[in-house]
Amino acid sequence: MENQKYSGLDLWDLLLAHRGHELVVASYGDPDNPQNVSLECETCGTVVLDAELYTLCVRSEDEPTTGDNYKVKQLQKMLAHETSESEAHYGANLSHWYGDTNALTIDAGGLNALIQYYQEHDTDLDAPVQPLLMSKEKAYRTIAKHLFRAHLKYEGSRALIILADSIEEATEKAVAAFGLNSVSVKRIDPTDDPQVYEV
Question: Which residue stretches of 37-127 are H helix?
Fold first, then answer.
């Protein structure tokens, strides 16, 4: 079962409902290495918080305000295992509670797609399905990460815009395009406008 993530307001209401009650912290399994720890209300006879089911995180100013941070972290751990050179790769299992489908194996590419989705979308089980389209702003910024300006160091004013994954690759492309080794290559600089870049 996936951990439930509580917002500040949910947690406030949850704890306030047990104000004045007898609360205990209980552990299960080996006392030195318990399998689970929970906060239980002896007055109500209920489990208030269960470490196996719930995740509470201190909010950080650096933490993104959109997306499902818990899910992203778990998916990133799975991806690390699925891309490790020292481990066998079995994929992640995806199943549905209804029970009329078989479990699916999700490979590293699928995990990466899920990470990208949940970095921008929170879990909302009642939300209508939206097409997975990248915003224009994000598309422009993504393309710009691969844009480099190249020119000859000592002659002429001819400049090239090169698409590459790294400055090393851009330099190789520039040397091949100019036919000379004396090239200067630099990444273009972004401005506040995602459609305008300084070269």
Answer: 69-83, 108-120
Task: Give mean pLDDT, residues 44-65.
Answer: 66
Q: Report the chain's terminal Cα–Cα distance, integer Å.
A: 51
Q: Which pLDDT does position 19 carry in this prediction?
A: 86
Question: Among residues 12, 15, 7, 127, which one has the least CA distance to residue 70?
Answer: 7
* Token pair recorded at residue 130: 């939206």
Give backbone dihedrals phi and psi of 69, rounded to 5 degrees, phi first.
-60, -40
SS3 151: strand
Tell me phi and psi for residue 128, to 5 degrees.
-65, 150
Distance CA 80, CA 111 (A): 10
Q: Which two tokens stand for residue 54?
A: 């719930």
Angle, in degrees to the nearest 10, between helices 69-83 and 108-120: 160
Lowest mean pLDDT among 39-53, 95-109, 182-196: 39-53
For residues 76-103, give the mean pLDDT.
Answer: 93
User: Do 6 and 14 form a contact (C-beta atoms < 8 A)?
Assistant: yes
Residue 151 in tokens? 């020119």
Rg (alpha carbons) of the chain, rounded to whole number: 26
Cα 85 from Cα 87, distance rounded (Å):
6
